[in-house]
Amino acid sequence: MPNKVSGARAGACAGDGVEPSQWSKNRMTRALRLSMAQLSAASAKVVAEREKEARWYCLAVHGGHEFAVEKRISDAGVEIFVPQESWVTIKKGQKIEGKSVLLPGYALVRIVPSAAAFQGLLKQKSVFGFVGRDACYHIVRDVDVAVLKGISDRNEVSRMPVDRTIGQGSRATITHGHFAGHECIVVQVMSGRTPRARVRVEAFGGGMGDVTMALAFLKKL
User: pTM value?
Assistant: First the structure.
């Protein structure tokens, strides 16, 4: 026998094109209010008041949830950036457009560092940590964020030069992105519209897993 859905939730489970129920709206409002309260110390308002103290940090998030995390935290008033690229493909004669995350599993947030700001971000759904070690979180340089934003805005990743001699076991320097300036070991190279590499970043005491990024972000040593 199929599971029953209560009348209060029926509207929230309705098909496409149906206006969200009042229950659903109220639930979203409560969730947003909670996030705003938790993130008050990390808000863009605090950044505006203490601009010189603000820094970019790298959030570790569950893969596939990057855009949802970006919306949730942005709606709560925090400056967040998920680098992405747009793409177009043809499938069965139809043009399909979409967006992909450039650095899966990560998002950048700009905050004034404080225990309350860090703790508030760690309470958000699908966020499980910050990149760094020994309670010293990795600071991403403003110049690296600016370059990454430019790449995303111009959607130029697929046009960036790629060193095809980079392969499994190669040592490389990361030239763009959250981990620019760090060395890494290439674990796997994946072909495709935008060739990618899975790398092991030689930083942070080995406290983070392998990172996937555009192959064009690497310079062979």
Answer: 0.79
